[in-house]
TrEMBL record:
Record key words, sorted: Coiled coil, TPR repeat
Record's signal peptide: none
Top-level taxonomy: Eukaryota, Viridiplantae, Streptophyta, Embryophyta, Marchantiophyta
Organism: Riccia sorocarpa
Gene3D superfamilies: Tetratricopeptide repeat domain
Coiled coil: 139-167
InterPro entries referenced in this protein's UniProt entry, alphabetically: TPR-like_helical_dom_sf (IPR011990), TPR_rpt (IPR019734)
Domain of life: Eukaryota
Name the UniProt record assigns to this protein: Cns1/TTC4 wheel domain-containing protein
TPR repeat extents: 72-105
């Protein structure tokens, strides 16, 4: 019998042996056809029988029938069932095998492309669709999937480019703040400042959003653009900004161009007209930590940006900065100082963006403010 032949034999087969092998091949072919049709029948019965269909196709493949065309169909059919089950990786693998066995199997290109589409493997989708379209140039489904994959791939490339650009800008800011010896802590007034952050101008000067808070009534003005080289004096006389209040949900826009200027009207809540230009003082809260690490600061500076999912922020080792253990206190701002001079003070930890409290001299609140008052 042919089944008992020596594998190392070099002599030609006898007629009897050749007949035996032909009979075995015929049995295998019959078994494969039967398993394929059984698998097809299970597939038609619906989802509950998909695993039975896969079992039939797998058993047929394992018979090792020497028929590339039939084996291509079996892998292609199994790819279809895996696709329906959501086993997209296996579906792609089976489709690839089907194509390898028969490059003209158009169904395999479609099934593989559809599974790759579900996995967001855009280059693989484009490859399978392009090869399939060489066989059927007018195939609408392959055309549609290739177009979709190309658009998605382009969008992802643009999103990645933008994300890296945002990260690069944030890294430049982190480096600039470190060089200026400016320390930043967690944001405390995000409901008033949103995701505003400092930005460079073309000369490399940092421009900050600066929040002025009136502790007496907890309303505030946001200076949108305060250059680090500007003195406080100039901004106190020319403020035309946004007004926020803890008691008012909506954001109000002030129309006064010179809030503390000589001819400016009094603040709407200042019934006694205490907050005049020659009476206001600015303070910042010193020694209030903790200080953000480089990695935390980088994340903070990118907060609110879209499309940063999956961006690697773990390239640098985490530094360890301790919280400031000194007693918090109020420090008066000298109006002739620049913003950078104030921010770089060793006791100054910026709560996200620079925040300064405005008080008026000669008021009972000022005395309370300096002795015992702390921000809510």
């Amino acid at each position: 019998m042919a089944l008992m032949m020596d594998p190392g034999r070099t002599e030609p087969l006898t007629e009897e042996e050749a007949a035996d092998l032909a009979a075995i091949d015929a049995i295998r072919e019959s078994s494969v056809i039967e398993l394929k049709e059984e698998g097809n029948a299970f597939l038609k019965k619906g989802k509950k029988h998909y695993t039975d269909a896969i079992d039939c196709y797998t058993r047929a493949i394992k018979t090792n029938l020497k028929d590339p065309g039939m084996n291509s169909v079996l892998y292609g059919n199994r790819a279809q069932v895996n696709l329906l089950l959501g086993n997209y990786g296996r579906a792609v693998d089976d489709a690839d095998e089907a194509i390898k066995l028969n490059p003209s199997n158009i169904k395999a290109y479609y099934r593989g492309a559809k599974a790759a589409l579900a996995l967001k493997l855009w280059p693989k989708v484009a490859e399978l669709c392009s090869e399939g379209l060489k066989l059927e140039p007018e195939n609408k489904e392959l055309q549609s999937m290739r177009k979709q994959a190309e658009q998605k791939q382009a969008a992802e490339a643009e999103a990645k480019r933008r994300a890296l650009e945002i990260k690069s800008k944030a890294e430049a800011l982190v480096s600039a703040l470190e060089k200026r010896k400016i320390r930043v802590g967690p944001s405390r007034y995000k409901e008033r400042t949103g995701h505003r952050r400092p930005e460079f101008d073309t000369s490399g000067i940092l421009h900050w959003p600066v929040l002025l808070l009136y502790g007496e009534v907890m309303t505030g003005d946001l200076i949108e653009d305060f250059a680090e080289t500007d003195m406080f004096r100039s901004h106190l006389e020319t403020i035309s900004l946004h007004c926020f209040s803890t008691f008012i949900i909506e954001e109000l826009t002030l129309t006064a161009s010179y809030m503390f200027g000589r001819n400016s009207p009094p603040l709407t809540w200042d019934a006694s007209h205490d907050y005049k230009r020659d009476r206001i003082e600015l303070y910042y809260r010193a020694n209030v930590g903790p200080v953000l690490t480089k990695k935390q600061l980088l994340k903070s500076l990118m907060e609110g940006e879209v499309g940063l999912e999956g961006l690697d922020l773990d390239g640098d080792s985490e530094d360890t900065r301790d919280s400031d253990t000194r007693e918090p206190r109020w420090v008066k701002v000298q109006e002739k100082m620049t913003l950078n001079e104030v921010l770089s003070q060793g006791n100054h930890i910026i709560p996200g963006v620079p925040v300064f409290f405005v008080v008026a001299t000669g008021t009972s609140f000022r005395d309370k403010f300096l002795k015992e008052w702390s921000p809510p």
